[in-house]
Design goal:
3 domains; 4-stranded mixed β-sheet; 26 strands; Immunoglobulin-like; mainly beta
């Protein structure tokens, strides 16, 4: 059963909880610690499945009933090893979506919350063959997963919270020391050590603080473990090329379960942010030089003006033509003569937005003239 979410203010970190409709006593809930996030800030979000009835409730799951639940794992979970992932899932979408227009979002792809690194995962669906019963405790998100008697010796009962944090995953470098190693080559024995080595690991984060994009090959980033230097440079390049703070716009966090319940939660990231900027030096489709890119605005009031500064040189203030919404996206198109645009040179762009209430927001990016 799907329907519009209900929303209520909670005492959890002064946040807000969004609710699905209740189906057979179960209700999906999305808890946010805020609905307004500063630019380059972080949001704590939790999705849970709650039994609203005063008695225990038994369900026999059909894990193929909602194909979006496992499909979304590719965007928000590195391996999807928790049984919770089979029962409900979530996805983050850019924009404002409701039950009336969610099909438009589902035709695209969610925001990628896991780093695009090559990983080897065991089969995340092995236990689906054994789980025939899900029994929820009264007025609780605790549930016991169990098998029928024929599989009870293979899969014992598991009691767990039907909770999952929505967060941005990340990768980090760790070190270890090999005290000694002995190699034998052509009959010659050589002993090494102690030697320090670097390795890396990737996992889930603690909050929604950004998103990932896939590399230009459309697949995954391979990080070489050959030397300490390649590990360090690989992680640095992964973040420099593929990690981005959340854009200054509105987001919808959607949760669904295998009983086709749906909950929607909303938050906005304030300020302005820049994406996909490029600078053409000559022979452009438009008059040269040609600067273009997307600017995401999410302010406290309609935009009044926009100022561009290039390598410290003020390009002037552009008044906004008419009142605009407080949150919108603009495809910026323009050019400048000072400093001169030379192919291969680097230019630092700084945009300053001024809103009707005279507050301001600033964002910067770097482009290389092509």
């Amino acid at each position: 059963m799907s329907g519009p979410s209900r929303v209520a203010t909670t005492g959890i970190e002064q946040g807000t909880t969004f609710y699905s409709e209740i189906s057979s006593g179960l209700q999906l809930q999305i808890q946010l610690n805020a609905t307004q996030v500063p630019q380059e800030g972080a949001l704590k979000a939790q999705v849970l499945l709650f039994n609203t009835l005063p008695e225990s409730t038994l369900f026999h799951p059909n894990f193929t009933a909602n194909p979006r639940v496992p499909a979304w794992d590719r965007y928000d979970s590195l391996c999807g090893l928790s049984p919770v992932d089979h029962i409900f899932g979530f996805a983050l979408f850019e924009g404002h979506y409701t039950a009336a227009n969610i099909s438009a979002a589902l035709s695209g792809t969610p925001v990628l919350l896991t780093p695009p690194v090559a990983s080897s995962c065991p089969n995340p669906f092995y236990d689906q063959a054994y789980i025939q019963n899900i029994e929820f405790a009264p007025k609780s998100d605790a549930a016991t997963l169990s098998a029928n008697s024929s599989f009870s010796d293979v899969f014992g009962p598991q009691t767990l919270r039907m909770e999952e944090n929505a967060s941005t995953g990340g990768c980090s470098i760790t070190s270890y020391t090999e005290l000694s190693r002995t190699d034998v080559v052509d009959g010659k024995t050589t002993t090494y050590g102690p030697t320090g080595y670097l390795t890396y690991g990737c996992g889930l984060g603690s909050a929604l603080d950004g998103y990932w994009t896939k590399p230009s090959n459309g697949s995954y980033v391979e990080i070489s473990m050959q030397t300490n230097k390649t590990v360090t440079s690989g992680i640095h390049e992964l973040y420099a090329d593929n990690f981005h703070p959340l854009l200054s716009t509105e987001y919808t966090l959607v949760a669904e379960d295998i009983w086709n319940q749906t909950a929607f939660a909303y938050f906005s990231v304030g300020g302005i942010s820049l994406q996909d900027f490029s600078l053409c030096s000559s022979n452009c489709t438009y008059p040269s030089p040609y600067l273009s890119g997307f600017i995401y605005f999410s302010g406290p009031a309609p935009l009044k003006s926009l100022q561009l500064i290039v390598n410290g040189t003020d390009q002037g203030v552009q008044p906004e033509k008419g009142l605009t919404p407080a949150t919108f996206v603009e495809w910026y198109k323009g050019g400048f003569q000072n400093p001169p645009v030379v192919k291969g040179d680097t230019y630092v762009l700084r945009f300053v937005a001024t809103y009707e209430d005279n507050s301001t927001a600033t964002a910067s990016t770097v482009v290389v003239a092509s």
